[in-house]
Amino acid sequence: MIPIHDSQRSETTPWVTSLLIAVNVFIFVYQATMDPFTRNDFIHAYGFVPARFALESMVTSMFLHGGWMHLIGNMVFLWVFGDNIEDLLGHSRYLLFYLLCGILAALLQFAINPGSRIPMVGASGAIFGVMGAYAVKFPHARISMIGWFIVLFTFEVRAWMVMLYYLFVNLYSGLGAIADVLNERGGTAFFAHLGGFGAGVALIFLLKTRSRTRLRHDAAW
Questions:
Q1: 118 within 8 A of 184, measured Cβ to Cβ
Q2: DSSP 8-state class, residue 217
């Protein structure tokens, strides 16, 4: 299931969300111009490798993706949920929130397997942080989803149900794949997703949100 639209209206233009999407797409297109060996070196240089812990690589890894579907899936989630959280936090606090969620997501993955030499890439941890904040602030918003069972179909569901579904899938998948993680077989960083979600829930309470009665008139950074 993939979200394609939500019922929660934003009062401000999501400049940062749009910029994040543009930067992610630009870097992926840049990756696509590289030969396989150069691309592999690029990912190892800028992806987050737990065995050679570096804060800066936690940030740069958020802007790398392993394939078109990885990129498109992440950007769709960011577009659907990001604008409302940017609306609440304001542009600068939202950017800080996004980066902190991504860093805290990487830290949980690091805690699970600090000796891993497999680079972790993708915006998923930060985006799950956005989803965590959305679950707290807009639990009853209606989310339009696209699903498939023989044919494609669309349906609506409440936001809290969407978030609960993705939490369950990632927790179940993460526990099922923990042997692969510990044995360096690669795969999806499920625990980074969970860490990002938890970070988003916590940070939305810690960072000051703007009054929605002022949003229409206050789009300042």
A1: yes
A2: T
Token pair listed for 103: 């860093």
Nearest residue to 83 via CA among 1, 180, 23, 16: 16
Structural domain contains residue 219: no
Q: Residue 220 domain-assigned? A: no
Q: Which residues of the chain have pLDDT under 50?
A: 213-221
In this prediction, residue 220 carries a pLDDT of 35
- DSSP label at 116? -
213 part of a folded domain: no
Read off φ and ψ for residue 158, nearest 5 degrees: -70, 150
User: For the segment 67-97, what is each residue's pLDDT rounded down to a tens digit?
Assistant: 899 999 999 999 999 999 999 999 999 999 9
Size (the chain), residues: 221
Number of domains in the chain: 1
According to DSSP, the residues that pair with 151 across neighbouring strands are 149
Residue by residue, DSSP assigns 34-64 as: S-HHHHHHHHHHHSB-GGG--HHHHHHGGG-
Range of the domain at 92: 2-206
Q: What is the largest CA-CA distance in the chain?
A: 53
Q: What is the CATH number of the domain that holds 178?
A: 1.20.1540.10
Q: Tens digit of pLDDT for each residue in 11-27?
A: 899 999 999 999 999 99
Specify the pLDDT at position 178. Answer: 63
